[in-house]
Amino acid sequence: MALGELCGKVAVITGASSGIGAATAHAVVAEGMRVVLAARRVERLHAVAESLRAKGGEVHAVAIDVAAPGASAQLLDAAERAFGRFDMVFANAGYGMERAHHETAEVDLRQIFEVNFFASTDLITQAARRLIAANRPGHLLMCSSCLAKFTIPYYGAYAATKAAQAMTCRAMRFELEPHGIEVSSVHPVTTMTEFFEQSAARSGLDPCGTKTPDHAPKFFVQPPERVARAIVSCLKRPRSEVWTSLLVRLSAGIITAFPWVFDGACRREARRSRKLATRSRQGRNRPVGRDSSRA
User: Is 2 a member of any domain?
Assistant: First the structure.
C-alpha cells in the first residue's frame, strides 16, 4: 500500500549529513514531507537541517550513532515526540571498506556488519513493530547497492553487508504485506559522494584522490539527487527494489546466470587495485599538499 499523498507525512532518514541521505531529505521535503534527520557528524547534520528549514521544511535533527545500543528506539522515539508519528524510514547510514578479505581483521569485519546490516535491520524492524501496533501503513527502505547482486575484488565485506540488506528487505516485504507496510531495497551505482574518500581512509589508503573510483566508467557515475528522485518515485509507486541504472541491473542478472563472463573483469580489477594500493600506501609516506585536510 502506497503512502498516497506525501505532503504532511513524516520521514526518518539516517546517514543524513551528506550524500544520498541529505539528497533524499531535500527531495522528500520538496514533496511536503516532514523529516527527522539522523547522523553522527553534528555540524554537518545541523547544516543540512538549516538548509531544509530555509526552504520551509519542518525538520528535527538527532545526532546519533546508529550502531550504539538503543539507537533505533531512541531515534523512533524522537520522531514520535517531534511529529507524533513516522510514515517512512530510510536506513541509509553505512560505510565502505576496500580491503582483501584475508587481510581484514575480524573486528573490522564485525564492525562493518554492525553498522551496515545489523543497525539498519534493527531500525526497520523496530519501525515495523510500531507501525503494526499503531495499525498504520508505512514504507521502510534500506540503502543497499548494486554490489548486493555481484561483487568486485577488495569489496567483498562491503558487498556481503549489502547483499544481506537486500535479502532481508525482500523477505520483509511479503512478511509485512498483510499490515499494509511496504519494504524496498535501494541499489545505487557509483554515486558522487564522499563515500570513496571515507572508504579509502578506513582501508588505510590515501583519501586525497577523487571522490569516485577509477573502476567506474563515467556513464556509471551518478549524482545522489538521482537516487533521491528514484526513492521519491518509489514512495509514490512502491516496488521491491529501487535502481537508477537499467544497464547495471540487467548486467547483474547476466552475471548471476553466467558468473564466468565477469571473471576477466574481476581479474583485471584485482590487478588494478593491488597497484593502486601499493602506490597509495607509498604516497601516504610522502608530504602532501593542503588538499589532504579533506580526510
Answer: no
Counting other chains too, the contacts that 38-47 makes at CB distance below 8 Å and 24 or more residues apart are: 38/12, 38/13, 38/14, 38/62, 38/63, 38/64, 38/66, 38/75, 38/93, 39/14, 39/15, 39/63, 39/64, 39/93, 40/64, 40/65, 41/17, 44/17, 44/18, 45/16, 45/17, 47/17
Number of structural domains (the chain) is: 1
Question: How far is C-alpha 26 from the geometric centre of its chain's CA atoms?
Answer: 16
Question: For 224-269, what is each residue's pLDDT tens digit?
Answer: 999 999 999 999 999 999 999 999 999 999 999 999 999 988 989 8
CATH number of the domain to which 125 belongs: 3.40.50.720
pLDDT tens-place string over residues 180-189: 999 999 999 9
Which helix (H) or strand (E) is 279 found in, with range?
helix 263-283
Closest CA to 90 of 24, 29, 8: 24
- HSE (side-chain half, CA atoms, 13 Å) at 152: 22
Are 122 and 173 in contact, with CB atoms under 8 Å apart?
Answer: no
Supply the Cα-derived Rg of the chain in whole angstroms: 19
Q: Would you say residue 163 lies in a domain?
A: yes
Average pLDDT over the chain, rounded to an integer: 88
Catalytic machinery residues: 158
For residue 136, give the C-alpha cell: 498504520
Predicted local confidence at residue 5, as pLDDT: 85
Those residues whose C-beta lies under 8 Å from the C-beta of residue 155, and which sit 6 or more positions away, are 96, 97, 98, 147
Give pLDDT, residue 221: 85
Q: Is residue 51 part of a domain?
A: yes
Which of 168, 188, 202 lies closest to 243, judged by CA? 188
Per the structure, the complete domain to which residue 35 belongs is given by 10-286
The set of cell numbers assigned to 292 is: 589532504
Query: Scanning the structure block, which residue is given the C-alpha cell 567483498?
Result: 156
295 domain residue, yes or no:
no
